[in-house]
Design brief:
The structure holds two protein chains of two kinds.
Chain A: H1 3-24, H2 29-34, H3 36-46, E1 63-66, H4 72-82, H5 123-136, E2 143-148, H6 155-166, E3 172-178, E4 181-182, E5 185-186, H7 187-191, H8 196-202, E6 206-211, H9 215-228, E7 235-240, H10 263-271
Helix pairs in contact in A: 1-3, 1-4, 1-10, 3-4, 3-9, 5-6
Chain B: E1 8-11, H1 12-26, E2 30-34, H2 44-49, E3 54-56, H3 61-71, E4 77-83, H4 84-87, H5 92-101, E5 107-111, H6 129-134, E6 140-142, H7 147-156, E7 164-167, E8 172-175, E9 189-192, E10 197-201, H8 205-218, E11 223-227, E12 230-232, H9 236-246, E13 249-256, H10 261-272, E14 277-282, H11 292-298, H12 303-315
Parallel strand pairs in B: 2-3, 2-4, 4-5, 5-7, 6-7, 10-11, 10-13, 13-14
Antiparallel strand pairs in B: 1-8, 6-12, 9-11
The chains are: A alpha/beta, B alpha/beta.
Chain lengths: 280, 317
């Protein structure tokens, strides 16, 4: 797909995000906007998957696990725009009886979601398990995960990191949304991650870095990561993003981590985000 | 009264080990994970025969549960093995989100449950696990009574699609379930028929309940004994059928009174058939170091405690 086409999808995804969060009057717009480019490239350019015939087992497909489940708006939008379920359903986000729960779940059988997430730190373990099963099944496809940077404060992440390297889980590409913000403020102030690149290297992972808003970089780095699978090491990409990317008054602030825009703020955001594929 | 022959003596965890090996031979989708307790869980035989289907997680139980949940995607049936404390309390949130809420086909196999873990003391003697696990939607909770039944249950849960908590123990105890008995999840075994009182027990307390029934028979009291090996889903019909006849009940378990089998039975009776009930279990206290037998006596989980509870409840009829 051409970069312009991917960008057009991501712009619509950003419109979906702010409209969903505003419609629900709750949710997490900041991190969702920051990961819109990444998830668009992953689902529309990188992954082999089957949106029209979702299967829980996902055999012979690439799998994706969202470990930082609170950025569900961006995932739901990308899943709907990929064809997993009708885009009109995005209007039901966080509403009673909806399949689009506040945090992703399998409970109501929403196509595209294979694991509940929300309580942080569990997705890397889940992804390792799925990757191990792929190896047992002689299935050569890749397992992807996305994590928040604040999420790396959870101890289970490092249990999983140790396991994956020690056991050569090399069909796994984890990405860290390194926006530097969490609910209480900057990650650096709340609980610094220190030398993050060095930490992953010390745990035995291949470490790549990329700009999460540069399409050439996203495509090149994800392709490079893909080419590094099967070489005995798990791969992690530290992806630099801006929380709130695409909406000027949200960019770079932790204040929009978990707050919905009001009607005026929504209009101000939508002016900045062209309707490219048609709103839901 | 039906007499029970002791067929031998073994630990229930060895029943798990044999059952795992056998179901591993029958079902190639069965995989096993362990958190540095392979010998204690008797998983060595499975590891030896199926090294490619065994995953050593190290002392990292949260990651083990998370991986097990992920392994179901693609059709594997993971059995996780560690002590009951580290199988539940330590990883409650991982089980809640990745296994129960996500409805993953994970079998959480928990050894060294309860006081009979013995000398290691209260840090390892979990007495709250049945309660925690039975509170989780979608979770099936099984507490088999002896070596044979643990082996049978270990194999039966592979055919049940959904999360299962399987609880067993460390000490060598009498075997009385026939080796060829069929294990049906959710169907209680009425071991002894009686008319004066119903004793409902699980795990190590089932044999002690049989012993109690024998002693009571000598004193002219006819006790019905039910092996409630499945705590969830609970066999309500078996409970009500029996208590409609006996009009009083004693529950016996190696667990806290709060949240355990006794609570589950009381809930059924409160709704359908209010009945005098006495409880044999641990009353809101932690355990301590000691031999399994010493601890069962000190904490009131021995055969005489069941006899005493029966006499007390009969007076309340």
């Amino acid at each position: 797909m051409e970069i312009q086409q991917l960008q057009a999808i991501a712009t619509q995804v950003r419109r979906d995000i702010v409209r969903m969060v505003s419609g629900a009057n709750s949710g997490h717009p900041g991190g969702s906007l920051g990961c819109a480019d990444f998830l668009t490239v992953l689902y529309f350019e990188m992954m082999k998957h089957n949106p029209n015939h979702f299967s829980m087992d996902g055999k012979e497909e690439d799998l994706f696990f969202l470990s930082n489940g609170h950025i569900s708006p961006v995932w739901y939008s990308v899943l709907a725009r990929s064809g997993y379920f009708p885009i009109e359903e995005l209007a039901t986000f966080r509403k009673l009886n909806a399949r689009l729960q506040g945090h992703p779940s399998t409970d109501k059988k929403i196509p595209g979601v294979r694991m509940a997430s929300g309580s942080l730190g569990q997705g890397l373990s889940n992804a390792i398990g799925a990757a191990l099963t792929k190896k047992l099944n002689h299935d050569n496809r890749t397992v992807y995960t996305l994590h928040g940077d604040g999420e790396l404060q959870e101890g289970q992440i490092w249990e999983a990191a140790m396991y994956a390297a020690a056991n050569k889980v090399d069909n796994l590409i984890a990405t860290i949304d390194y926006n530097g913000r969490q609910i209480d403020g900057d990650v650096e102030d709340v609980l610094s991650l220190g030398d993050l690149n060095g930490k992953w290297q010390a745990f035995g992972w291949e470490v790549l870095e990329m700009d999460g808003h540069s399409y050439p970089d996203l495509i090149e780095t994800l392709s490079k990561a893909k080419s590094m699978t099967g070489n005995g090491k798990p791969i992690v990409i530290i992806m630099k993003t801006e929380m709130g990317q695409g909406v000027d008054y949200m960019v770079g602030s932790h204040k929009w981590h978990g707050v919905a825009p009001n009607v005026e703020q929504l209009q101000q955001a939508l002016i900045q985000l062209e309707e490219t594929l048609g709103d839901y | 009264m039906k007499q029970f022959e002791i067929l031998g003596k073994k630990d229930t965890r060895s029943g798990f080990g044999e059952g795992l090996l056998e179901i591993g031979r029958q079902n190639p989708d069965v995989v096993a994970l362990c958190a540095d307790l392979t010998g204690s869980l008797k998983m060595d035989a499975f590891l030896k025969e199926f090294p490619e289907r065994f995953f050593q997680a190290g002392i990292a139980e949260a990651n083990m549960i998370g991986m097990a949940a992920g392994m179901t995607i693609g059709g594997k049936i993971p059995y996780t093995g560690t002590f009951a404390n580290f199988s539940t309390g330590r990883v409650y949130d991982q089980i809640r989100q990745s296994v129960a809420y996500s409805q993953k086909n994970v079998k959480i196999c928990a050894s060294h449950a309860g006081l009979t873990l013995g000398e290691d003391g209260a840090t390892h003697q979990i007495l709250e696990d049945i309660g925690m696990m039975r509170m989780l939607p979608h979770m099936t909770v099984i507490v088999p009574a002896d070596f044979n039944q643990t082996k049978q249950a270990t194999m039966a849960i592979a055919d049940h699609k959904g999360p299962v908590y399987l609880r067993f123990g460390r000490p060598v105890v009498p075997i009385f379930v026939q080796p060829d008995a069929k294990f049906t999840i959710g169907k209680a075994d009425v071991l002894i028929e009686g008319t004066d009182v119903t004793i409902i027990a699980c795990g190590h307390l089932v044999w002690k309940s049989i012993e109690a029934a024998q002693q009571l028979a000598e004193q002219g009291i006819s006790a019905e004994v039910i092996n409630m090996h499945t705590i969830k889903p609970l066999d309500e019909k078996a409970i009500l059928d029996s208590i409609n006849k006996t009009k009083c009940v004693v529950t016996a378990e190696e667990h806290m009174l709060n949240g355990g089998l006794g609570d589950a039975v009381a809930q059924v009776l409160a709704r359908h058939l209010p009945t005098p009930q006495e409880y044999v279990g641990v009353n809101d206290t932690f355990g301590e170091s000691g031999t399994p037998d010493e601890l069962m006596v000190k904490y009131g989980l021995d055969t005489p405690n069941i006899v005493e509870a029966v006499k007390k409840v009969i007076k309340r009829k």
